[in-house]
Amino acid sequence: MSKQEQIQATALRLFVANGFHGTPTAKIAAEAGVANGTLFYHYKTKDELVAAVYNKIKDEQACNVQAIINRDDFITTKFRNVFVHSVNWALKNRDKFYYIQQFNFSPHLAQLSPEKLELHIVGYAEFIAEGIRKKLLRQQPVNLIISMFNGHVYGIYQYITAANFDSAEEEKIINDGYEMLWDMLKYM
Predict the structure, then answer these.
(1) What percent of the chain is predicted at pLDDT more than 90?
(2) Which of 12, 39, 72, 174 has the smallest C-beta neighbourhood within 10 Å, fewest atoms?
(3) CA distance 157 to 85
(4) Which domains are seen in the chain, by residue range?
């Protein structure tokens, strides 16, 4: 693992545990096993590090979504696959998913360019726009549907992680959650 990767992995762990404001850069550097100067060589400010960790996670998540989208699948299949995959990704990557939520509800989100934010949702946006064009999804703005989709993923994640379900129960909850989301967003 490179020093930059060590810094990001340590920052992720500490930001999740202590929050952005409760994590000094000196602690990140010390726990990553690098000098303060090395941290600031890679990231000029703490805010830049916070955004870099977010962008890395969102890029990873976007790649994972792109990898499961079969261009030949019908839109309803794509929508279901991406939803189920997104919830399962969140459950398997709890610290990363928590970090995304933490970042999204912080002032740091406003620091990202609209272009970078668009790159994070390109996998979703394409098939949702296709569903709207084909009148399979409600005739609403793509970003509104993505927000509702992501909110539903978050809600299912919260519900599952707050309890102690076995894998069969989790799968049923995810599938039922998908059906509720689809009933809400399908074209009428």
Answers:
(1) 84
(2) 72
(3) 12
(4) 1-44 (1.10.10.60), 46-185 (1.10.357.10)
